[in-house]
Design a protein that fits this description.
The chain is an alpha+beta fold. Among the domains are: 92 residues; 80 residues. It is built from 31 helices and 26 strands. It is globular, with a radius of gyration of 34 Å. Keywords: Coiled coil, Endosome, Lysosome, Membrane, Protein transport, Transport.
Length: 776
């Protein structure tokens, strides 16, 4: 059974606990849970079982079996365990499974038993073996603590930034501690261990003896300990059946009582992380072998057949549902029920609440209680009562009611048996919607995640776009379909959804060994700057050069040319450039500019500029035999860009003149840097200083890139007639103007300037308008 203290609320009133069933488990386990290694993730997380782990036979039929289930017992994945002896299982905050082996190796698997990576807890652990281990969570991340056969502790507070810490030695320790726990105090992780009747605290530098305040001198030896979910409270169980409870700092005692059993419990966890004052004993009898999972606001209890939740009844629910309650929420609930029966008692209940001026409090109680209820029918009943009460209030803010309705709809969806994430209202608020969506994505429940995003009206970037990107990255890993089918399916689903990066999806395909699929997916990437680096990484230099030339970005062409020169021998390099006149012309310009730089008297004055410039000039002279390396040009451009970004316009102008940077390139550099520092006033002055050699369309593009539509409109008015349509497309105005004029020629002109990858919504709008004109 489960034994627990009946605690009191901060007001001193007795608080009541409730246990209800979450699910009837679907896993059909044949083994007892006590015969398996078990780990269950908090916040309604998955359950991992390692079966046959304790058998000594080495026959294939007796190999351990790792299985992962949802909280409702629906199988997610399983795999035969072929590695070393596992000592402990545990879940990370991101729901990865940690398998801690006897040799100190920690293997990490995802929810579908797919191996991700591994790390070691160090040579000392390898030599002395792991005797016990614990997985814990702090503000730093997920940590692992190890007790070795040499009776020494080692730990890391963050497995994603592995820094192993060997804890101080306990003087005279000749045997394993009877029990131990990991505590987190003032952002420092420490270990509390018990040896007989003595408690020791290990921090980074020392080992100290501690005594719980107020503990009975006849309490006996410590045999079990438990830390609360939030690390604030500690419970100690002794061999005389005594339980001491207090703060984890061991500075305050909250209570002490004796049980009628002395055998150490298999598990001891905290029910709630609140102030406990012990006034007796409460017991729940369990029919079969069970496992306890501490949660933020209660305890999950699962066995081979059921999964239940034990929690403290919230004050609002208690006030409404206790027998003969006269709380305003209870009266409002009765009033609404009587109203549905068309009984005049509804008016009597309402009048009683209004006479006490408690109608707003009654509505608030019903809304709050609805959030904590598990049964949808009870939720609806309470929300109907709240809605009924709101009708008689002039100025009750609707936000809490609307928010609760939305949150409950989301919670009810994920509580579904097939989804199996039994988050409570309090856990959901702590976890946040962003993390919940991440967990749905991890389970590959993409349609549900998208529906929730649409229902909650989350931004594209925060919601649907991010989920579709995850879906696409998963899709490219499926090898049962051809590259053409997968690429087409991805484009059909994603289209030009804002925030989607086809290059990231292509990179995932390449990492999975599907180079041809990566190339096909990259075809849908509208930004050449994202295509080219990945093509170079994939050794597709010729294709990268073609894409760079198509983009018209000279820097991008320079990048590919430099890559080709370093990758190919001299003869092949020049043969490749002969086939690309644009690249060959740019290469010759860069080479000629390099020669001019070395011979220019301007070097003397420019070399007085900055340390970076001096380094540049020295590098130019040092590379006299390799003048055709374009990164010399890059470093100069980067210097100019950096000077403008720092507001040093005079120095930038001097380098522009001294090194004869092309006018077009300098204007691009300057307006890009000014936009990055959001110096719109300086940009306007610069645009009026003389006629722009690049026109004013780039001003529009850069302003829109930095989401400044107001400034973009100024420059759109100054573009040439040939560029006006493109400028309006950038401002999402061209289509509207053409449609308003009902001019088919203008519409066709706009269509000719659109691309399917970036302007599909504009194309669709114009085609609809043309169809309407034809009908007339």
């Amino acid at each position: 059974g489960i034994t627990g203290g009946c605690h009191r609320s901060p007001k001193g009133e007795a608080a009541f606990s409730q246990k209800f069933e979450l699910y009837s488990m679907a896993w059909n386990l044949k083994e007892d849970l006590r015969d398996c290694l078990v780990a269950a993730a908090p916040y309604g997380g998955p359950i991992a079982l390692l079966k046959n782990n304790f058998r000594k036979e080495k026959s294939p039929g007796s190999r351990p079996l790792l299985e992962i289930y949802s909280a409702s017992g629906v199988p997610l994945a399983s795999v035969l365990w072929k590695s070393g002896q596992v000592v402990q299982l545990g879940w990370t905050a991101s729901e990865d499974l940690l398998c801690i082996q006897e040799d100190g190796t920690v293997l990490i698997y995802n929810l579908f038993c797919e191996f991700k990576r591994h790390f070691s807890m160090g040579n000392e652990v390898l030599q002395n073996h792991v005797r016990e281990a614990k997985v814990f969570h702090t503000e730093y991340g997920t940590g692992v603590a190890i007790l070795t056969g040499a009776h020494r502790f080692s730990l890391t507070t963050n497995i994603d930034d592995l820094k192993l810490r060997r804890m101080p030695e306990v003087p005279g320790l000749q045997k394993l501690p009877s029990c131990w726990a990991v505590l987190s105090q003032d952002r420092v992780t420490i270990i509390l261990l018990a040896i007989g009747q003595d408690l020791y605290l290990l921090d980074n530098t020392s080992c100290s003896v501690v005594t719980p305040p107020g503990i009975s001198p006849h309490a006996g030896a410590y045999v079990q300990m438990a830390v609360s979910f939030n690390y604030c409270y500690l419970a100690l169980f002794t061999d005389t059946g005594s339980i001491w409870m207090g703060t984890s700092s061991l500075k305050e005692k909250l209570g002490e009582f004796s049980c009628d059993f002395r055998t150490p419990p298999r598990q001891m966890v905290w029910h709630v992380a609140e102030l406990w004052t012990l006034s007796g004993e409460r017991r729940f009898i369990l029919d079969e072998d069970s496992y306890l999972v501490p949660e933020l606001d209660g305890v999950r209890i699962f066995s081979r057949t059921t999964h239940e939740f034990l929690h403290e009844i919230p004050e609002a629910s208690e006030e409404i549902f206790k027998i003969a309650s006269m709380a305003p929420g209870a009266l409002l609930l009765e009033a609404q029920r009587e109203y549905e029966k068309q009984s005049q008692k509804a008016d009597e209940y309402l009048r009683e609440i209004k006479d006490q001026n408690l109608l707003a409090e009654a509505v608030r109680q019903c809304i709050e209680a609805a959030g904590y209820e598990h049964e949808p029918e009870t939720q609806k009943s309470l929300l109907r009562a709240a809605s009924f009460g709101k009708c008689f209030l002039d100025k009750f803010p609707p936000e809490s009611f609307v928010r609760t309705c939305r949150d409950l709809r989301v919670l009810n969806a994920i509580w579904d048996y097939q989804i199996g994430i039994p988050l409570t209202f309090a856990q959901y608020k702590q976890l946040t919607i962003e993390v919940l969506l991440d967990r749905l994505v991890l389970r590959r429940l993409y349609p549900l995640a998208i529906k929730i995003c649409e229902y909650l009206r989350l931004s594209e970037f925060q919601g649907v776009s991010r989920i579709l990107a995850h879906w696409a990255c998963y899709k490219v890993q499926q090898k049962d379909k051809s590259d053409e089918e997968v690429a087409h399916a991805i484009n059909q689903k994603l289209g030009d959804t804002p925030g989607i990066s086809y290059s990231e999806i292509a990179a995932r395909a390449y990492d999975c060994g599907r180079t041809e699929l990566a190339i096909k997916v990259l075809e849908y990437e509208p930004r050449s700057g994202e295509q080219v680096p990945l093509l170079l990484k994939m050794k597709k230099s010729q294709l990268a050069l073609n894409k760079a030339i198509e983009s018209g970005d000279t820097d991008l062409v320079y990048t590919v040319v430099l890559h080709l020169k370093n990758e190919l021998n001299r003869g092949t390099f020049f043969m490749t450039l002969q086939k690309q006149p644009v690249a060959l012309s740019l290469y010759r310009q860069v080479r000629g500019r390099g020669l001019a730089l070395l011979r220019s008297p301007a070097l003397v004055s420019a070399s007085q500029a900055t340390e970076d410039q001096i380094k540049l000039l020295r590098m130019q002279r040092r590379l006299q035999d390799e003048l055709d390396k374009p990164y010399v040009d890059y470093s100069l451009h980067d210097t100019v860009y950096g000077l403008i970004l720092d507001g040093n316009h005079k120095r930038a102008e001097q380098l522009y003149r001294d090194f004869r940077i092309p006018d077009k390139r300098f204007w691009w550099l300057k307006i890009g840097a000014l936009a990055e520092r959001e110096d719109w006033e300086e940009m306007e002055k610069f645009s009026k200083s003389k006629k722009s050699p690049i026109g004013y369309l780039p001003f529009v593009e850069i302003c829109m890139k930095h989401h400044n539509r107001h400034e973009a409109k100024k420059y759109a008015a100054r573009v040439t007639p040939e560029q006006r349509v493109k400028a309006h497309i950038l401002l999402d105005q061209a289509a509207d103007a053409a449609i308003e004029h009902k001019n088919e020629n203008e519409m066709n002109l706009v269509l000719s300037k659109c691309t399917a990858a970036t302007d599909s919504s504009v194309v669709e709008k114009i085609n609809r308008a043309k169809a309407q004109i034809l009908k007339k």
